[in-house]
Write a structure and sequence with these properties.
Elements lengths: L1 E6 L2 E6 L6 H8 L18 E4 L2 E4 L12 E3 L1 H4 L7 H8 L9 H16 L18 H7 L10 H11 L5
Parallel strand pairs: 1-5
Antiparallel strand pairs: 1-2, 3-4, 3-5
Helix pairs in contact: 3-6
């Protein structure tokens, strides 16, 4: 099945089996191995990417469902010699240990910061009509779909605060 995707700003045409997940298309057909296959059930968040600016679990969606969509992976957020502010904060705040979940954490946090900027409330947002405050509880709630086996959560929260220009 012909599928057209814009991956990290580059238009790509793929000829895929219609059963191919977006994660497998990225990793096995395009060689973008930053997004990880953790649980393959949408429970860990290691495969988180952004589609049209919204974060999704790439293991739970078929690539052909995103024909014409814009996909941003960790490779599109920054490179080793040009890190995004969030990636830099993860490094400086020790927001990773083994690093397996880090690409998904960073993709999720990038989209999460945009959600807050756009005024989207979460379950713990105290004033649904007002602006969400970037509290540790707010970050933890919004990042709850991204698991870290090493339990680097306090450092991840601190890195997000730092990237957003806030102190925890």
């Amino acid at each position: 099945m012909q599928t057209h995707l814009t991956i990290n700003g580059t238009q790509r045409r793929l000829d895929l089996d219609p059963r191919t997940t977006l994660l497998d298309a990225l990793r096995h057909h395009l060689g973008l191995t930053g997004s990880k296959k953790g649980c393959d059930h949408g429970q860990c968040g290691a495969c988180t990417v952004m589609v049209n600016g919204r974060r999704i679990n790439a293991c739970l969606t078929l690539a052909c469902m995103h024909d014409g969509d814009e996909v941003t992976t960790i490779e599109g957020i920054g490179q080793p010699d040009d890190l995004s502010p969030l990636q830099q904060a993860f490094v400086s705040e020790d927001g990773f240990q083994c690093g397996y979940c880090t690409p998904g954490q960073i993709c999720s946090a990038t989209a999460m910061l945009q959600e807050i900027s756009d005024g989207w409330p979460s379950h713990v947002t105290s004033d649904l009509a007002g602006e969400a405050e970037l509290t540790s509880d707010e970050i933890s709630e919004r990042m709850s779909g991204n698991l870290c086996r090493c339990s680097a959560y306090p450092n991840i929260v601190q890195a997000i605060h730092k990237a957003a220009g806030k102190n925890a």
